[in-house]
Amino acid sequence: MVNKLTPVLFVKEIEPILPMWIDGLGFTKTTEVPEGDRLGFVILERDGVELMYQTYASAGKDMPAILADVQKGPTFLYVQVDSLEKVKAAIKGLTMYMPQRTTFYGAKEIGVKDPAGHFITFAEFPKPSQ
Q: How far is CA 110 from CA 25, 55, 100, 113, 119, in A?
């Protein structure tokens, strides 16, 4: 039985991605592990949704046998949200790879690259009719 699924994204630096997740999307850091004067690992959480970031340097120390695979990236995330309009403010200034569209299944989507180069699609699904 699966109880939880948490993606781990590997990056050169963690600090540049934090404003989007914390300031823009309201996540909080529940765990942070320093790596010298920078962060080596962080867990971000909001309303039961969790995401982890780990630096290549930290992964190299933690799992040297798979470092080459870890560095291949990028990761693609599909994130369902309540309001695409609220997300637009959080992603302002990021590189857009997919302008807003409505899919055949009714979701409004927009796609951006985070500062570490990972692709994130945000999707708002229509509210069910009552």
A: 15, 26, 4, 11, 11
